[in-house]
Design goal:
- The chain is mainly α.
- The chain is elongated.
- The chain has 18 helices and three strands.
- It has three domains: about 60 residues, no CATH class; about 270 residues, Rhodopsin 7-helix transmembrane proteins (Rhopdopsin 7-helix transmembrane proteins), CATH 1.20.1070; about 45 residues, no CATH class.
- It starts with a helix and ends in a 5-residue tail after the last helix.
- The longest helix has about 40 residues.
- The chain is about 70% helix and about 5% strand.
Length: about 425
């Protein structure tokens, strides 16, 4: 009577301390039996031999392009992304932006950018080692579908938040009365929660359709070339991720839907909204219509949207092709895909530096905030925080300097 699959799996667990698929388990046992019949025994120190095999090619092909940007481009981008987006989150919380509903979207976008960037941390560690590490290899592969899901959720949220703040700005310029009625803090939080729920529901598919398999092979190792029968055998595992063939239709539907709602439609909508904002903001005198804070937010919105269009727009073609081809990438398509992945990482990093370069008010707030953080004198720190939340005009600076002097005088104990 043939053993059942569960019995075969249990046999491999008892013999090799590994949970293997029944077919793989039978292969391993048959290979070991054949080697032992030839007089080849098990290696006496298997722990000194590589337990896992690296499936990536470090020297050629598309793997080389992926590993190069993961090793040399992503680590500095992670550092810049963390400090830039963290400063964005802190600066958006200054009193200067109180009352602006758009700033909540911008703050959430900065957080989504950081999550998107640091969901690649295991990829960077995995690419940095030419030889697989016994603790990292299973962690990297078994967590890969979940980190891909987190990455896609945060990337989709970043795109949607950019679209939301752009549409809100269009409403502010074109229909100010409707803007004041509907664009409230409460409505902003409702939209944020619903968007996060929809993005999670959409990308949960990745975990369902992606299978991570551990395939074990029997390898021979020659300890001493001069001695006969010096070879021995050891077990080596390799991980691979593949699309579950039972969910192929579901996967293609997911790829097409993601391409539409996360890339194509938001990109077109942002382009139209940006053109409307630039046209209205350029050809109409808005000096009396909007406050200094609102004009600052409008400029930041335009900068954010244009940056997103520059770095994420070209991804539309690549994602369209990948949705059609599935896993059958050509070499050129694979390179374009990695190039767009790198552009997405740059897009998650660059908003802070674009604001810093293009917006005088944001530059003033950043400088004052950093001065306040590194200042040890409590009076000066309080003054710098106060300056960070004010307009960067000359009169504001004069008033703040005078306030700092008065505060220092009042803070001194009186001898009378």
């Amino acid at each position: 009577m043939d053993p059942k699959p569960a019995e075969i799996i249990q046999m491999c667990v008892e013999q090799f301390d590994k949970v293997l698929e029944p077919y793989n388990c039978v292969q391993v046992m048959a290979t070991i039996q054949s080697l032992e019949e030839k007089g080849i025994a098990k290696c006496s120190m298997p722990s000194a031999l590589p337990e896992y095999r690296h499936i990536m090619n470090f020297t050629s092909g598309c793997d080389w392009a992926e590993l190069t940007y993961l090793q040399y481009a992503v680590p500095p981008l992670m550092t810049l992304c963390f400090f830039g987006n963290m400063l964005n989150v802190l600066i958006y919380g200054l009193p200067y932006f109180e009352g602006s509903s758009s700033v909540h979207f911008l703050r959430a976008k900065a957080i989504a950018n950081m999550v998107f960037m640091f969901s690649r941390i295991l990829e960077v560690l995995h690419a940095s080692n030419a030889q697989p590490l016994s603790y990292l290899e299973p962690l990297f592969w078994k967590s890969r579908p979940y980190l891909m899901m987190v990455s896609n959720i945060s990337g989709t949220m970043s795109t949607w938040l950019t679209l939301m703040v752009t549409m809100e700005t269009v409403m502010c310029i074109m229909t100010p009365f409707i803007f004041r009625k509907y664009c409230t803090k409460k409505m902003t939080w409702i939209v944020l929660i619903l968007s996060a729920f929809a993005a999670t529901l959409l990308h949960l598919t990745i975990v369902i359709v992606t299978d991570v398999e551990e395939f074990t092979q029997v390898k021979q190792y020659i300890q001493n070339f001069k001695k006969e029968n010096a070879a021995c055998w050891f077990l080596q595992s390799v991980f691979r991720a593949r699309n579950n063939p039972h969910y192929e239709i579901y996967r293609r539907f997911y790829a097409t839907t993601t391409m539409a709602v996360s890339i194509v439609i938001p990109t077109i909508a942002m382009l139209v909204c940006t053109l409307l904002i630039i046209k209205k903001f350029t050809f109409k005198n808005l000096g009396e219509t909007f406050s200094q804070r609102r004009k600052c937010v409008i400029r930041m919105t335009v900068a954010t949207t244009l940056t997103h269009l520059v770095f994420e727009g070209p991804a539309t073609l690549t994602h369209s092709a990948s949705a059609i081809q599935g896993d059958n990438y050509s070499y050129l398509m694979c390179l374009l895909n990695h190039g767009n992945n790198l552009a997405s990482l740059v897009n998650a990093t660059i908003p802070f530096f674009v604001f810093l370069f293009c917006n005088q008010q944001f530059r003033h707030m950043t400088v004052m905030y950093i001065k306040a953080v590194i200042q040890t004198d409590q009076v000066k720190r309080k003054s710098y925080f106060s300056q960070a939340g004010m307009r960067c005009g000359r009169m504001s600076r004069i008033e703040t300097d005078r306030s700092m002097a008065e505060t220092r005088l009042v803070s001194r104990p009186s001898n009378v």
